[in-house]
Design a protein that fits this description.
single chain; binds adenosine-5'-triphosphate; six-stranded mixed β-sheet; ATP binding; alpha/beta; nucleotide-binding; ABC_transporter-like_ATP-bd; binds magnesium ion; four-stranded antiparallel β-sheet
């Protein structure tokens, strides 16, 4: 590999009071990869992402994004990153276009280029024809694609997506992933995504890290991890082998319902 890693985490930790949410994480993401951070509820995925995106201080260890130190050069790192948080960020009272334009202003896209960048981002996610309807009339999948457009409007080098497909039906899930794949191919962007859907990670991620109780338990391509365990293994088997735990618990269902309710509340 030439040049710096897209993301490099060395001995990164973070505690909330007595809870050690992230506990000595080492991680390297190669430029241009779609990298999946996988783990069950409470594994520490969101906390890790929030440190990488400068929203939480790095309590211990070091993180760089394309060689830039996250703790020392926060604003420079922010200009490299587009972030779609786990909680919804679209405003139901605004149109799709207005939502994306708001992010263009927030992220300092030069005024002269704003309208064009907004249009480009909406096209990348396939929302150009629905851009002038209010977001409260969008389906869950369209909302997720709108949030993707918000993160893309500043042309980031690193796109960070926290559970982009939670609460979506299978068709909407694959449409979000198809967009991510197309965007990566068109722009060469690096993508960091969390999910607890093993099948999605197997299909769409170049490399994955399996996280449990604040620690990375396995790291590699899905094929490498599966081959390490033996013929016919799935990522879910690997996860169980390294943690003694199941990844796809019933909680996913509960969370899906919660996420859907939250969408309804926010946009209704
Ligand atoms: N703001 C906070 N205050 C206190 N504890 C927190 C806070 N945020 C996270 N935690 C705790 O830190 C741990 C890791 O949480 P985190 O949200 O990073 O997990 P996650 O892997 O993203 O889980 P999920 O799949 O549910 O989104 C959990 O035990 C959680 O309860
Ligand atoms: Mg989370």
């Amino acid at each position: 590999m030439t040049g710096p890693a897209a993301v490099q985490c060395t001995g990164v930790s973070h505690s909330f009071g007595p809870t050690r949410a992230v506990d000595g994480v080492d991680l390297e993401i190669h430029p241009g990869d779609v990298f999946g951070l996988l783990g069950p509820n409470g594994a520490g995925k969101t906390t890790t992402l929030r440190m990488i995106t400068t929203l939480l201080p790095v309590a211990a260890g070091r993180i760089t994004v394309f060689g830039v130190d996250v703790a020392r050069r926060r604003m420079a790192v922010r200009r490299l990153i587009g972030y779609v948080p786990q909680q919804l960020s679209a405003d139901g009272a605004l149109t799709g276009r207005e939502n994306v334009a708001l992010f263009a202003r927030l992220f300092d896209v030069p005024r002269a280029r704003r309208a064009q960048q907004v249009r480009g981002a909406l096209e990348l996610v396939g929302l150009e024809r629905d851009a002038d309807r209010t977001a409260k009339t969008y389906s869950g999948g369209m909302i997720r694609r709108l949030e993707l457009a918000q993160a893309l409007v500043s042309s980031p080098r690193l796109l960070v997506l926290d559970e982009p497909t939670i609460g979506l039906d299978p068709v909407a899930r694959s449409s979000v992933w198809d967009r991510v794949t197309e965007i990566r191919a068109a722009t060469g962007m690096t993508v960091l995504v969390t999910t607890h859907y093993m099948d999605e990670a197997e299909q769409y991620c170049d490399r994955v890290a399996l996280m449990h109780a604040g620690r990375i338990r396995a790291l590699g391509t899905p094929a490498e991890l599966e081959a390490g365990l033996g013929p016919g293994s799935t990522l879910d088997d690997v996860f169980r082998a390294v943690t003694g735990d199941r990844l796809d618990s019933d909680e996913g269902g509960i969370r899906s319902v919660r996420a859907t309710r939250r969408t309804a509340r926010r946009l209704g």
